[in-house]
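quick one
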Amino acid sequence: MKTRLHQPTPAALRRLAAALRRGELAAIPTETVYGLAANALDARACRKIFTAKRRPANDPLIVHVPTLTAAEQLAEFNAVARILARKFWPGPLTLVLPKKRRVPGIVTSGQTTVALRSPAHPLARRLLRLARVPLAAPSANPFGYVSPTTAEHVLAGLGGRIPHVLDGGPCPVGVESTIVDATDPHRLVILRPGVVSSRDLRAALARAGRRATVGSRPREQVLAPGLLDQHYSPHTPFSLVARLPRFPPKNTGLIRWKRPARGGARAGEFWLSTRGTAAEAARRLYAVLRAADAGGFGLIVCEKAPGRAGALGEAINDRLKRAAGKRARR
Ligand code: AMP
Ligand code: MG
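structure w/ adenosine monophosphate:
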């Protein structure tokens, strides 16, 4: 299959929206990472996502919607979920809620809940409006590999396997959305950390006069494979450490949290941020992992985000741990 790379002209967006309505796949930019989109109401179109990504059928998809109103046609919202959607949408928060019948079982891997998000990226929003259907879109990469944050990353992983890629430049956030199970309005559960933190969630609810506990799910209970212990992984053996070794083994790629104060790049050295901010490290994370993976090293050693990097640092460490992780026992 030939993969076409589209620049975001009005005509191209109209063509892509029509292709999505017809049941074709298109990789599209969002503020988090590039998503591989299909009409979420079309089970056959959604099946193509699993085939193209070689994604196991038991790993459910996130459905993207333009508005809360559109989301309410797909899931049963409670008052707490509505408060969160009004506060954080459009943006990098995904809500897991009881699904309505219209959502095909393949999207939710047969579960009774569906994951929903309204993306903030202007091109994703324009496509949602033009396509007039919700879009199921997991990250646009082969299953288990490092997520894509540029159109080039998408082409490198899925070129020849999908018909369309929309080039929207680099993704402004760079790590995947925070996923919150909101089926129980009294007990929210963070299934995947992201930019939106448990503190942000609590604060939004408090302002609206609501209280809910916000927990995170213990790893061993996690069944959704997006949360597998190994995910986001480079091909090169990868290890995550609190402090980089002064004398690393030969042929080792080193990823620092921050650019060293003095001296330029030594061969085999990378860094996630130049100034040490978490936002910059998140934006660059997957591009740096890919660059290190392409370096021909026998091992990549990466420094953890420091505690001061906050919620986004935790989200980065979550991805790095999984990049280094073993396959989950299931
Ligand atoms: P991706 O879009 O590739 O980052 O993956 C989406 C992830 O969202 C999945 O791997 C799951 O971990 C999570 N997810 C999607 N739907 C559900 C659901 N109904 N319940 C729990 N987690 C979900
Ligand atoms: Mg993914």
